[in-house]
Amino acid sequence: MSQTVSVSIQDRVAIVTIERPQHRNAVDLPTAEALLAAFKSFDANEDTDVAILTGGGGAFCAGADLKALAAGERKPVNPDGEFAPMGPTRLRLSKPVIAAIEGPAVAGGMELALWCDLRIAGRSAVFGIFNRRFGVPLVDMGTIRLPRIIGQGRALELILTGRSVGAEEALAIGLVNAVVEDGSALETSLEWAKRIASFPQSAMRNDRMSVLEQWDLDEPGAIANEIARGLATIQSGETFLGSSRFAHGEGRHGKFT
User: Fold this and answer.
1) Average confidence score pLDDT of the chain
2) What's the whole-model pTM score?
3) Engineering a disulfide at 88: which of 5, 39, 82, 151 sits with its beta carbon 3.0 to 4.6 angstroms away?
4) Which of 122, 144, 4 is CA-nearest to residue 59?
5) How many CB atoms sit inside 10 A of residue 240's CB?
6) Structure confidence at residue 256 as a pLDDT band (50, 70, 90)
7) d(CA 128, CA 165)
């Protein structure tokens, strides 16, 4: 994709890697633009079902590149359009993304992780709103997604204090979905991604979108939207194919493949 973002494909999984290890994968303007392009391309690609976002060189992402900001770089910050200062954080993709996190996922890097559907962290991973100490605001939906994921009380604590959160605490408060040995976050994310990609995709994607869309709706609207999404799955034929597989013996006695 660019000098600072690479994309590789394994089976039906796209792996998007931030390639600025000398900057702890901090995101400057070209990197933000490359990340946005990479995930738009993933969403449009019919040959991929799941993406993984990770960072090269032992760091996930240290946030926005403050050295570039101090040197005069300016990213557009406005309420319109799909570009966000960290790149893709305003995109609502039709397919899931997993964050494979090693090392720091802090400041804007934490906002990138929050944008992903699932987060798998190495044991030494560190999270935190570290931008608090430098007067840098959260403008990549961190103030929106963090309370929805871990609750408002805990979110306000992290946002107000800017303290660091280790992987085990992140797991305990629901910030990450799994903690694995250092160096294996990407491998585990690939295992999860391939499992998700192996499922019938219409039901999975429609159920996922219902979860995301319900935040914008009142309860009756959310119910109607869930039904509409469910009917779209049924009309795709996927449900009847699955029920036929079950009727012929697949999945009996709790067997899950």
Assistant:
1) 95
2) 0.94
3) 39
4) 122
5) 10
6) low
7) 6
